[in-house]
Design goal:
The chain is an alpha+beta fold. It contains four helices and five strands.
Length: 172
């Protein structure tokens, strides 16, 4: 994501925002991203133009489903803030898990605004929201894994399992 921000700053050069035509050079960042068209004064109306495959696979951006409601709202808010400020806007989300979920997501995103395409009505623009995420085990799944590892860990004395020995000091 730092690379996406650096590419955005380079594309902007001396201008306040990079031109919409610079989006072609952001192909490496579009798979985990959402591209919005923004229009109107703040708070801008946003329309999704494209969702990258990797981000789409998370299934957090469906119009229905409570699991992704917070994520969708925060990504839209980041896009609106970037458009209104004319500057990159960072957001961190999570890690939260719904009850019963084995994993939870920790997301970090940067919203990058672009100047409107030539001839577009003002105020309009494009916002590319690049997302990075990590899947983390829930507390319950982490405890279960630790218990399983404890059962599998051999005791150096040949008896019952001994916590902290097979993985090294402080790791068990």
């Amino acid at each position: 994501m730092r690379r996406a921000e650096a590419a955005w700053r380079e594309a902007a050069g001396e201008r306040p925002l990079p031109p919409a035509t610079a989006l072609a050079s952001f192909a490496a960042f579009t798979d985990p991203a959402i591209l919005f068209a923004a229009a109107g004064p703040p708070p801008a109306r946003l329309r999704v133009l494209k969702v990258g495959r990797a981000l789409s696979a998370l299934d957090l951006l469906r119009p229905t489903g409570a699991d992704g409601a917070q994520v969708r709202a925060r990504l839209v808010a980041a896009a609106r803030a970037a458009f209104a400020q004319g500057a990159p806007h960072w957001v961190e989300i999570g890690p939260d898990a719904a009850p019963g979920q084995a994993t939870r997501l920790a997301l970090r995103a940067i919203a990058l605004p672009f100047a409107p395409p030539p001839g577009a009505a003002q105020p309009t623009g494009l916002v590319l929201v690049v997302v990075s995420w990590r899947e983390l085990l829930s507390d319950e799944a982490t405890r279960s894994l630790a218990q399983e590892l404890d059962r599998l860990r051999p005791d150096p004395a040949g008896g019952a399992t001994a916590r902290g020995t097979a993985l090294g000091p402080g790791l068990g």
